[in-house]
Amino acid sequence: MGICRSDGSGLCDSRNCLQNRDEKLQGKFAEREKGAMTMIVQTKKEAWEAVKKMYKTEYHKDVTSSYHEEYHVYTDGKDIMIEDFGVRLKVVKDDNITNIWIAKQIGEGITEEIEQEAEKLSDKFVFNYFNMNGKLSSKEFRKNTIFRIATQALKKMKTANSTEELFDICHEAEILLEKEIKECQGYLTIFEPLTKVMFRWRREGKICHKKCYCTDDCTAIKEITQQQAS
Q1: Cα–Cα distance between 32 and 122 in angstroms, integer?
Q2: What pLDDT band is residue 115 in, cutting at 50, 70 and 90?
Q3: CB contact at 8 A, 157 and 198
Q4: Is the pLDDT of residue 14 over 60?
Q5: Which residue from 6, 66, 105, 179 lies 20 to 30 Å from 89 (Cα-Cα)?
Q6: If phi over 0 gives left and psi between -120 and 50 gives alpha, with beta otherwise, what is residue 70?
Q7: For 135, phi and psi rounded to 5 degrees?
Q8: Measuring CA to CA, how many Å separate 99 from each of 13, 37, 51?
Q9: What is the DSSP annotation of 50-104?
Q10: Residues 187 and 174: beta-carbon distance below 8 Å
Q11: Do 121 and 151 form a contact (C-beta atoms < 8 A)?
C-alpha cells in the first residue's frame, strides 16, 4: 500500500482514501442535466405521439448527425432535435429538454416507481479522475448506461431476502458500471445512491427490513442512523 500524504503527492490505493478524495472533487467532476422534463410511456409509438403533441410539426432523419453521433437523430429542419437512444427519446428545443422514457424498451418487471428512481440516479455522473485517459464516453451514453444498470438493480431489490443480498446488488451495479464506463467513479455514481434508495424503501416497508449488519464506515449506514436519531 502506498503512503497517503495530506498534500496529495503520495499514492494510496486504499478504498477509503480514494473515496474521500473523490468526495472532495465530486462538485468539480459531477455532471447533471438541469431543467430537463421527464415523461414515461409504454411504447416507441406512444413516445413519438407525445413528441408530436408537444410540437405539432413534421420530422425527418438527420443522416449526417446520425452518422457522426452513432445513434438516430431527427429534426424539423429548424430548431427541434430528437435523439433516439432506444430506451428514451430526448427532445431538445432551444433550452427546453424533455426525456421520454419507453417502458417496453427497458425490460419486463420494471415498474413506473423503479423507472422514476432510476431516472433520478441517471441524472448524475461522477468521474474517476485517476482513469480519464483516452477518449471519454458521451454524456448520453453515460446517462443511458446508469439508467439501465440502476433499473435492473432496483428490480432485484424488490425480491431480495436479506440485507446482505441488498448490498450485494448495489456492489454488483457498481462493478458493472465501472466495467462499462472506464472513467466512472462507481461508488459515488451508483453504489451510494442505490443504498439511499434501499434504506428509504426499507423504511417504507417496500423491501425486506431485517436488521442491517454493516461496518461503521458505511456512508449509507451513518446517514440512516442520523436520520433515525433526529
Answers
A1: 9
A2: confident
A3: yes
A4: no
A5: 179
A6: left
A7: -75, 130
A8: 39, 6, 10
A9: HHHHHS-S--EE-HHHHHHHTSEEEE-SSSEEEEE-SSEEEEEETTEEEEEEEHH
A10: yes
A11: no
Q: What is the spatial distance between Cα 89 and Cα 47, in angstroms, rounded to a whole number?
A: 7
CB of 101 closer than 8 Å to CB of 37 = no
19, 41, 88, 94, 188 from 128: Cα distances, Å: 10, 34, 26, 31, 10
Total-model pTM: 0.56
Distances (CA, A) of 45 to 57, 89, 107: 16, 11, 17
Angle between helices 112-122 and 192-203 (to 10 degrees): 150
* 3 state SS of 209: coil
Residues in the chain: 230
